[in-house]
Design a protein that fits this description.
With about 450 residues, the chain is an alpha+beta fold. Helix content is about 45%, strand content about 10%. The protein is built from 20 helices and nine strands. The longest helix has 19 residues.
Length: about 450
């Protein structure tokens, strides 16, 4: 938690760099806000500071209808210190407690239920289920504000299977019922449009340049201020276009999806793909201290891929060849095996091939050595059949896959913040120019160090 004096200065200045790092609750109104709230600032003696929206809600405060705390970027300051909690939060945000229960979540995490409850109690002061329900309510609030979806669709998209349960839970946490909140909303678009905020700065030109060099036609599209792509999430398909709005420190996302039940998980993955929750100022301060003399690009973000499988395939196809040649191979793969979205979404656009489709193909259309084709097919077969495909340590047992391939896939497919690509030739050369500085000093942000060296 930031000290009170820092929070006081940040809220009076409405400093966007602190957006999501703390929340301001006002005892006289019972409302909590973001530090960038446009309302007249309250007197300091009426203010209480919290480091998460969940803690403010647990203390009895309801979210502000003007600054909408559900739109604040998530605070990642604690990441790296507790990987179990981080993984639990990621799974909860993907909806595991909506489809399953706490026992199943603990089995996936490999820990006991009591220990998981202790982690959440210590960090947020609530149980895992209470945390999950509040995140569902915050997401529902965002949909009510920013879209014209009917309330029943909002409930379904937020993970509720009963409209009565949704109304009760929403009123308990938000102190308003959904129809009252919809009265305040003024959506400007009939289509599904969402606003995803981030904490500035954000180096959009560098992110756009990185994605441009690896763009796959028919699956991705990109312009001066936008990036879009197709996606598959479970049985659901869709596509999105995220348009950068630097003045408001956000991306305006136009989203089409054929199954609203996974919408919350999909939106969370879009945030990860664009690395919108990174506190780049804190990361760069750490890198400055760890690697003196390293010129930094302010606001550099990790350029994610949609999922770990796609990242693994691209890493295999990119082994020991140029960036242009790797892009050509991926394009051939998508053209040959990528399934069209379908007429209801966009028949001209294709999804990335599934593990089953790659495993079933002889891949003869890929102009590369047969050993590399065998590696790709072996990887797809293993990913298709594995019960824990996200366990990247098991990839190393597959012939043709080494540490660089695994690390690159984790960096882009999981947006892992602490991946050090020590075998990368560009990274080696740039690090040597810095008098062979010790990269281990940059932990837990070595992924950002890798990216900074690529851009150096």
């Amino acid at each position: 938690m930031l000290n009170k004096a820092t929070c006081h200065r940040a809220r009076l200045a409405r400093d966007a760099r602190f957006d999501g790092r703390f929340f301001t609750a006002v005892t006289t109104t019972g409302i909590y806000c973001r530090p960038v709230c446009p309302a007249n600032p309250p007197q300091e003696h009426n203010v209480v500071y919290f480091d998460s929206a969940v803690e403010a809600a647990q203390a009895g405060y309801r979210p502000c209808l003007r600054c909408r705390p559900d739109s604040a970027p998530g605070s990642p300051a604690w990441k790296g210190a507790n990987t179990t909690l981080e993984r639990a939060l990621r799974l909860i945000n993907q909806g595991v407690l909506q489809q399953g229960n706490l026992v199943e979540l603990c089995e996936r995490l490999g820990i006991g239920e009591r220990y998981l409850r202790q982690l959440f109690q210590k960090r947020f002061g609530v149980s895992p289920k209470t945390y999950a329900l509040y995140q569902q309510c915050l997401f529902a609030k965002q949909l009510l504000h920013q879209t014209r979806l009917p309330v029943t669709d909002v409930a379904y998209a937020s993970g509720f299977r009963s409209i009565r349960r949704f109304n009760d839970c929403f009123k308990q946490h938000m102190k308003l019922n959904p129809s009252q909140l919809r009265h305040y909303a003024r959506p400007e678009h009939e289509e599904l449009m969402l606003t995803l905020a981030y904490r500035p700065p954000l180096a959009w030109e560098h992110l756009r340049h990185f994605l441009t060099r690896r763009l796959i036609d028919g699956q991705e599209w990109l312009g001066d201020d936008f990036y879009g792509r197709t996606f598959v999430w479970g049985e659901a398909k869709g596509h999105f276009t995220a348009t950068h709005d630097p003045q408001r420190h956000c991306f305006n996302v136009a989203l089409s999806i054929d199954d609203l039940s996974v919408l919350q998980a999909v939106v969370g993955n879009i945030r990860r793909l664009l690395d919108l929750d990174a506190d780049t100022q804190a990361i760069e301060n750490h890198l400055n201290a760890a690697i003196p003399g390293l010129p930094l690009v302010p606001g550099l973000r990790l350029p994610g891929m949609w999922d770990l499988f796609e990242a693994g395939v691209r890493a295999i196809l990119g082994q020991q060849i140029s960036e242009l040649a790797a892009r050509r191979l991926v394009q051939n793969l998508v053209d040959a095996l990528g399934e069209p979205l379908g007429a209801s979404l966009d028949d001209q656009r294709r999804c990335f091939p599934t593990p089953a489709s790659i495993a079933a193909s002889d891949l003869s259309f890929l102009k590369m050595i047969s050993a590399r084709r065998d590696t790709l097919r072996r990887f797809a077969e293993w990913y298709r059949d594995s019960e824990t495909p996200e366990d990247t340590t098991q990839w190393l047992a597959l012939k043709g896959i080494g540490p660089w391939t695994v690390d690159y896939a984790r960096l882009r497919g999981l947006s892992h913040p602490d991946i050090w690509l020590s075998g990368d030739l560009v990274v080696k050369k740039k690090l040597h120019a810095l008098d062979d500085a010790d990269p281990h000093q940059a932990a837990p942000w070595r992924s950002y160090l890798t990216l900074q060296l690529w851009n150096h």
